[in-house]
Amino acid sequence: MVMDKRCAALLVVVCVAARAALAVSDGPLQNGNFECPPDPNQMNGSAVTGQYAIPNWKICGYVEYIQSGQQQGDIVLTVPEGAHAVRLGNEASIEQQMGVTMGMYYSLSFSAARTCGQSQKLRVSVNPGGQTSDLPTQTVYSSNGWDTYSWAFKAACNTVTFVIHNPGQEDDPACGPIVDSVAIKTLYPPQATQNNLLKNGNFEEGPQISQDYQWGVLVPPMDEDDVSPLPGWMIKSFSKVVKYVDSAHFAVPQGRCAVELVSGVETALVQEVDTVPGSSYRLEFSAGDAADGCDSPMEVQAFAAGGRTTVTVFSPGPGGYTRGALEFTATDSRTRVVFVSPGYYMRNDGSGTLCGPVIDDASLVCVSKPTARRLLL
């Protein structure tokens, strides 16, 4: 009863203030888990009929308010956190205005699940600024059917609108992905140093991981100019991802977080580094087992300036890692450091869930520079 009164009061505030922006802090967005329900007078069954019926959100198109355990044909719908979520029909969207700091970087994360088995995607955007991306959701990387996705942006002003949109055109207009647990995190991109030319080589800076994200957070492929939710790193792929994992739910070689290569050769973890042609460099990194039931042995390959090394991870038990190293001579002023898993791996629980080796604690240092005579030549 107290919760209902609080939500009703919040709904009045939202309707009166229309789309007034709320200052955000790291963690869930206002009503980001959708536990504060819509006004019952603006509902038709599970369909939400009022644009501002869901507190703190504006909706467009066919949006359903889903309860965990709700029946859809022969399927029982579940939600990843709490008891409620929303489902987006064809061309439907939800959006929320946020107060941010102009020029700062932010990562947004949310959980999503398919409901009808078809190939689906979600389009995320932030305006003003025109930053937008399509997140592929056709591959499921967790055994429970839910995945958490991350996406990042640079704030173009102090008030922005975040939109999650289902651009699908399915036979059933109500058939679309379920969305829940929307959260934000301020990013502070690390800089390269003499002790490590790689930015964020320990992967400690990344998207929000809450206690509810027991399956990690997916970092999607991105173009060269996109803002990365994993500062310093690019994800090069057509439609696959890497998984950002934490030590609370996975085995991590060092520190709090690492990256699991869950998509085999279809995805590469890449960073471009300033180098001096003719100088020698040493790349070191940890390749490990995330302790998520992945079959071993697993392999990781590292590439830089024509050099390559392969590290095999043998894990007789949960966790464990092996150190790898690659020495190379730079041939250009910019050198790409690339990590990739050459094989495809699945959990040994029979679920068919993709997994892979983790990368952590990566460093790159210059070990020798060309002599003056060589520079003159």
UniProtKB/TrEMBL annotation:
Subcellular location: Secreted, Cell wall
Keywords associated with the record: Cell wall, Glycoprotein, Secreted, Signal
Record-annotated membrane-spanning stretches: none
Pfam family for this entry, one: DUF642
Signal peptide: 1-23
Source domain of life: Eukaryota
Domain DUF642, chain residue ranges per copy: 28-185, 196-362
Main location: secreted
The protein's name: DUF642 domain-containing protein
PANTHER family: OS02G0527500 PROTEIN-RELATED, OS04G0494600 PROTEIN
